[in-house]
Amino acid sequence: MLHLTAFDAEDLGVISAQMQDAVIRFADVSYLKRQRRFAFVANRFAWDALPERQRRRTGVSINDVTRVQRQGPQGLGDLTVLSLLARSFAPAGGEDNPGGTITMTFSGGHVIALEVACIDVSLDDLGPAWSTGTTPEHGA
Questions:
Q1: 18 vs 21: CA distance, rounded Å
Q2: Which listed residue, 21, 42, 48, 65, has the most CB atoms within 10 A of its CB?
Q3: Number of Cβ atoms within 10 Å of the Cβ of 125
Q4: What pTM value is reported for the model?
Q5: How high does pLDDT run on average in the chain?
């Protein structure tokens, strides 16, 4: 089981790699504005368990979020399932500014951009793994 924390762009890259191809129900995504926290629960493909093909229920929390923007098709229902393709970080600029934008790109043209005061992200596996018959593939 993974328990990861990111405080810089390099750490965030590790979490991004582990969350690639995670599937997320739109109902499992939440922005808690007062707490400045964006959180979601996903079924991640356990890249760290290869050659075994497994998925794990995983919680991700992104703290110090000051703004959330979503792009893509509208009218997502609670049961809509999205596949997380990539996560990236663009610094806000200036050596003294630890903030920037964390961008999550999903299948179907969905993008969520989170402006953060600093990078403070945690990933926690929430339970046992289960077997899956396939390994996600990425066409060239």
A1: 9
A2: 42
A3: 18
A4: 0.88
A5: 91
